[in-house]
Amino acid sequence: MWHRIKRYSLVLPALLLTLLLFFGGLVDGLLKSFGYFPAVGATSFTLVAYQDVITSNTFLDSLSLTVRVALLSTVSATLLGVTVALALYSVQRRVKNSWLLRMIQLPLTIPHLAAGYFFILLLSQSGLLSRMGFALGWLETPAQFPVLVNDSFGLGMILTYSWKEAPFIALLVYPVLARIGDSWYEAAKIYGASTFQYIRFVLMPAIRPAILTASLIVFIYTLSSFEVPYLLGVTYPATLPVYAYQLYTSGSFSDRSEALVIMWLLTALALLVGIIAHRFYRKAYARGWE
Question: Which of 101, 108, 150, 107 is nearest to 125 (CA)?
């Protein structure tokens, strides 16, 4: 009996500490979002912070920017990732090249913070591309280069997320494609299907659960990510995580409650999307396409 529980007891201290820090932080943030600050004498619960946040024009502008960046980043990363996975599947059917798969994995090893700096150095008006355009005589000054980072539309953030998340989607989709044998393609050819019809009616239904699951994960990540919008965003409007950070560090306890309201709204949305993604995964698992 002791041998059976010994291995669990060894990880118990780390598990308890993790649970305490994670769920303790969530509960503490939830209480303070309702205005419960015992340290400053606020021991009652109120919905004032929730009302102030939801009716705030700044919050609505930040919400609009955040959803726009998350949606466009997810769509572009999904299209790029699926295209890369199909191209890799096509190449691997002819020649097995393990280095191609490793090359696609390369952006996954780069932290988002470093990727943000990379796109600043590449796309800013004093960056590499603007200087190359000036050196080649395409621009009279580097400042004529279009504003692609720190722009109010969020294009720099969308480009960064698309580059970072496309390999993640490709690596979730490709294992499903790799399980499809050549006999499927040959059978489709026998029935007169073109390559486009084979992709549309055979491959796409097979990889759809993986695409949906990966897209939902990317969407919720970009919705709640902080470092890339902090580097590549503008002062106003900021994305919701950056806006919450600005409120929390302003020094006002009322602003801290509003910051925690925003973070809890994002947490609730992440849980909802996580449940949906899990249902898609379970359906795919039941069909044998995990």
Answer: 150
